[in-house]
Amino acid sequence: MTPLMKIQPFIQAYVQAIASILEADVTIVDHELIRVAGTGDYLNEIGNAVSHANFFEKILKTGKGGIIRDVNDDSNCVGCKKRAYCKELANLAYPIFQNQTVVGIISIIAFREQQRKNVLENMGKLEEFLKYMSMLLESKLYTDEAKSKLEEQLKAVHTAESAWSFVGDSPKMQEALRIGRKVAKSDSTVFLRGESGTGKEIMAKMIHDLSDRREKLMISINCAAIPENLVESELFGYEEGAFTGARKHGSVGKFELADKSTIFLDEIGDMPLPVQTKLLRVLQEKQVERIGGRKPIPVDIRVICATHKNIEKMVAEGTFREDLYYRLNIIPIELPPLRMRREDLPALITHYIGYYNQKLNKHLEGMEPEALDAMIAYDWPGNVRELKNIVEYLANIVEGTHVTLSDLPDHIALHGSRGDAPRSLDEMMSDYEKRILMRMVKPGASLEEKNHLADTLQVSRATLYRKLKKYDLI
Ligand SMILES: Nc1ncnc2c1ncn2[C@@H]1O[C@H](COP(=O)(O)OP(=O)(O)OP(=O)(O)O)[C@@H](O)[C@H]1O
C-alpha cells in the first residue's frame, strides 16, 4: 500500500475541507497514479487509475508543480486517451513529498467555466496554497511513519520479553493478584506500590493484558530514567520549532502513542513538579497539548503508575502534588517484598531454573537442601529481580544437576545451615573457608599456581597445603 493510501480516510476528509473553502474540486493521487481522494465527479473514482498520465508523470518526475489551462489546447494533454471526453477545464497541481521523494500529487480542478476563470485569475495564490497543503500532508506522513516505526520497535521489545507470568501463592501475593485481575476491565487509575524488583511492571502488564485495551501496546515510561528537562517532551510531544534542537516535523509524545491503550508511568515519584501539573491536566481533561502546539489532542488512555518511594511523605514535604496524588491513588495495589513472603521462594526458584534451562540450554534440576535453606534465609533486598539474576548466574556456572551451598555467592551462602542442628562458629568458618578454596584452586592446578595462591591469600605454603588436604581438594 502506498504511503498516501495508508492514510486515505484522513486525506479524503482533508480534500473535502479544502474543496469547500476554494469552491473548486480537489483530488489527490499517489505515485502509482491511483486516485486516493477526490471531490465532485471524482468522489466515485477513488481507487481507480487516473488519466492525465503525461501531466502527472511529469510532476512525479520533476518534483515541480504544473498547470493545464485548457484541456483542448495544452501540450500536457497531447496523447491522452481521454482528451476527447475529458470533463476538466483546468488543473493546477503540486507534488506531495515524503523524505524528499514525490509520493503523490494534490490538484485543484475546474469542471465549470467560472471555476476555470477563478483558478487562472488566482493562480499565484492557489499555487502557494497548494504548496502549504502539500507541506501539511508531508508532516502528517512523517508523524504517522515515526509513530508506526516506534510502535514496531516497541512491539519487538514486547515480544522479545516473555509474557508476564506471576509466581506466588503467598496470601499477600494472592491478594495483590486478586485486586489486579478484578480491576483490569475498568479504566480506573491503578497505583502500584512496592520496593524495587517486586513485580510492579509485570503487574501493570498483566492488568493491561487482561483489559479490553490489550490489542494495543502498553506504553511504558520510566520517569526516573529520563533527564528532567526531557520528561515533558517525551510525555507530551512537541511541534516543530518548539525549542532549540526540536526535530523537524516535531515529535509524538507517549500519551498520544498510548491513545486507546494503557500508559505505565514507572517511578512517578521522580516526575518533576511542572510535569506533574501538566499530567494532572491531561487526566482531568483527557487531552494533551504538545509543547509549542496550539490545539489540544484528545486521548483515550488508562493510566497505571508505580513508585517505590514514600509518596505520602513527598506530599507532606511538598515535592509531590496532593491533588495529583488523589487523582492517581484510586486503586492502590501493594506488592510485598520477597522477605515478607519467603514461602514464595521455592516456587520462584523452580520457575526461574526452568526459564534459564530453556534459555541457556542447561539441565539444572534443583537445589541441595542446604543451598535452598540459604536462599530462603537471605533477605533479598533486590527482590525478585535479584533472585532472577542469581538463578541466571547459577544456571551458567553449576556443572552438576543440583545447586550446592558452595555454588552460591558468598553473601547468600553465609545464610546457609546444615540440617536442623545449630552449628558452631568453627563449623561455619570451615564451610566458608572450604568454599573460598574451592573457588580459587582450579582442578589440576600446578605447584607454581598453588604457591602463587598462598602468596595471594597471605598464608604460608604449608598452611595452604594443610587446608587443601583437610577439605579433600588435593
Ligand atoms: N511474582 C513474580 N513472578 C515471577 N517473576 C517476577 C515476579 N515479580 C517480579 N518478577 C520478575 O522480576 C523482575 C523485576 O520485576 P519488575 O520489573 O516488574 O519489578 P518492579 O517492581 O517494576 O521494579 P522497579 O521498581 O525496579 O522498576 C522482572 O524480570 C519480573 O519478570
UniProtKB/TrEMBL annotation:
Keywords assigned = ATP-binding, Nucleotide-binding, Transcription, Transcription regulation
Query: Could you tell me which Pfam families the record lists for this protein?
Result: AAA_lid_14, Sigma54_activat
A Gene Ontology molecular function term of the record: ATP binding
What's one GO BP annotation on this UniProt entry? regulation of DNA-templated transcription
Q: Do the record's keywords include Transcription regulation?
A: yes
Q: Matching InterPro entries, A to Z?
A: AAA+_ATPase, AAA_lid_NorR, GAF-like_dom_sf, Homeodomain-like_sf, P-loop_NTPase, Sigma_54_int, Sigma_54_int_dom_ATP-bd_1, Sigma_54_int_dom_CS
This chain's protein is named: Sigma-54 interaction domain-containing protein
Cited PANTHER family: C4-DICARBOXYLATE TRANSPORT TRANSCRIPTIONAL REGULATORY PROTEIN DCTD, TRANSCRIPTIONAL REGULATORY PROTEIN
Judging by the UniProt lineage, the source's domain of life is: Bacteria
Q: Which PROSITE patterns match?
A: SIGMA54_INTERACT_1, SIGMA54_INTERACT_3, SIGMA54_INTERACT_4
- Keyword ATP-binding listed: yes
Record-annotated Sigma-54 factor interaction domain positions: 166-396
Q: Which CDD domains does the entry mention?
A: AAA
